[in-house]
Amino acid sequence: MSKTRVRLWAVVGGLLLAGCSHKPALKVDNSDQPYRIGREDVLDIAVWRDGDLSRTLPVRPDGYISMPMTGDVLAAGKTPTELGEEIKERLKPYVQEPRVTVILREVNSSRVFVTGEVAHPGAYPLRGRVSLIQAIALAGGFTDFANSNGIVVIRNDGPEGQIPVRYSDLVSPKDTQELFLRPGDTIVVP
């Protein structure tokens, strides 16, 4: 088969596949953003060669941690590297060439909320990449009165706002895309 003919079939096939889409594509979260520290996370802060300054600290509900010599430091919203750099700068007047490492010991701030017609509505920890189907399973699945094709994912940290989702689209063998959840997402099952 000639190269021209192969290209022609590729174009025709692409056009056919593009025309078959009858439903809007789900917004899939494939972001590989670094983890941002949240409230109630637990951090290991190590100051090299200074055991008195090294410690394990919880992030307070206001987003701060408290350390000797540095006072209150805002941790929520920063990456561990960014927080380590800030602590390092604050320690410079007291410690010669401080080396600070921040390690995330416990992730307690990343949660999703499932409400409505599910067996066990509530807050669920977001460990790794969790899809909408997995979150519904964590909540015990649908009740007998659930409208599974009227699900709404409320996302406050992005431009999406409210994302309508049909469960039948999620489990359809024709559609392999999944909606991955972000910390703070709320799933409403009417």
From TrEMBL:
Organism superkingdom: Bacteria
Residues annotated as domain Soluble ligand binding: 111-163
Keyword Signal: yes
InterPro entries: Poly_export (IPR049712), Poly_export_N (IPR003715), Soluble_ligand-bd (IPR019554)
Keywords in alphabetical order: Signal
Any one Pfam family match given in the protein's UniProt record, by short name: SLBB
GO molecular function: polysaccharide transmembrane transporter activity
Positions of the Polysaccharide export protein N-terminal domain: 30-104
Key word DNA damage present: no
Cited PANTHER family: POLYSACCHARIDE EXPORT PROTEIN GFCE-RELATED
Identification of the protein by name: Polysaccharide biosynthesis/export protein
UniProt organism field: Stigmatella aurantiaca (strain DW4/3-1)
